[in-house]
Amino acid sequence: MKKIEAVVRLSKFEEVKQALYDAGIEWFSYWDITGLGKSTEEQIVRGQVFQSKYIQRRMLSIVVRDQNVDKTINAIIQAGKTGESGDGKIFVSDIEGSYRIRTGETGPESLYNKE
């Protein structure tokens, strides 16, 4: 099992969410974050000036079976990419255990994505 953490643009979140659903990933956690990057360029969005290092982001946390890692990452990249600086990052780490509280299932069987 792997944990995928993705930092994406807030403006691309709905597209990323739909791409994950289309890939069969139906459950994940997310929260709003503000990151600090080294880019200092200013961007004008709807008449307001923003520094790109302070653009709002959304962090997604997804635990998947090993065979779903590539399709999850590809869905995030394809839906979240604008080609501009600040598109985000994806981190993958190992998960040692997983437990479903309701049923007591453990390991990969406790995850929602059955493939």
Provide a short characterization of the protein structure.
Helices cover 19% and strands 33% of the residues. It is of the alpha+beta class. Helix 1 packs antiparallel against helix 2.
Characteristics:
single chain, 115 residues, alpha+beta, Alpha-Beta Plaits, 2 helices, 33% strand
What is the secondary structure topology, with strand pairs?
Layout: E1 2-9, H1 13-22, E2 29-34, E3 42-45, E4 48-51, E5 56-64, H2 69-80, E6 88-94
Antiparallel strand pairs: 1-5, 1-6, 2-5, 3-4
Helix pairs in contact: 1-2
Give an overview of the whole structure.
This protein has a single domain, classed as Alpha-Beta Plaits, CATH 3.30.70. With 115 residues, it is α+β, with helices and mostly antiparallel strands. The longest helix is centred in the middle third of the chain and has 12 residues, at 69-80. 19% of the residues lie in helices and 33% in strands. It is built from two helices and six strands; from the N terminus they run E-H-E-E-E-E-H-E. It has a four-stranded antiparallel beta sheet with strand order 2-5-1-6, with helices on one face. The protein has a two-stranded antiparallel ribbon with strand order 3-4. The two termini are 12 Å apart. It has helices spanning 13-22, 69-80; strands at residues 2-9, 29-34, 42-45, 48-51, 56-64, 88-94.
